Amino acid sequence: MSAALTLDLASGVPPYEQIRAQVTALVAAGTLVEGERLPTVRDLAADLGIAPGTVQRAYRELEARGVVRSRRRAGTVVATGADAGPAAAVQGRARDFVRRARAAGLDDGAILDLVRGALMTA
What PROSITE patterns does this protein's entry cite (predicted)? Predict the structure, then answer.
């Protein structure tokens, strides 16, 4: 899973929030499923080149939202019934939007710019 996560350290979004958002999106998309184990805090931090405390904060945020559950010695796993809440309801429409945007020749950066613009005006 850690290969699926990327960080943009030049972004204004804190790294822990980028991790939280990406894991939530992977759960909503069904890429991460109930009971699937996430990398240890140390392993993910090493893979991403960040401090373990940053990953720890992301995992705490995910647990507070019910996306994962963490237990000593058992690690952090996708929680039972985790579907990223309301985001799961619009996941199909988001995929359709991305497919149409890519078919129109837009790259991922341009697609994200469109979404950010829509968020600012909605």
Answer: HTH_GNTR
The pair of structure tokens assigned to 7 is 């960080």
Look at the chain and count its residues. 122
pLDDT tens for each residue of 95-116:
889 999 999 999 999 999 999 8
**Residue with tokens 């600012």, as numbered in its chain:** 120
Query: What is the per-residue DSSP string for 81-103?
Result: T---TTHHHHHHHHHHHHHHHHH
Residue boundaries of the structural domains of the chain: 2-78, 87-121
User: 55: closest CA among 64, 66, 43, 65?
Assistant: 43
CATH architecture for the domain at 2-78: Orthogonal Bundle (1.10)
Q: How far apart are CA 108 and CA 60, in angstroms?
A: 29
Assigned token pair, 74: 């058992």
Determine contact, residues 83/92, Cβ cutoff 8 Å.
no
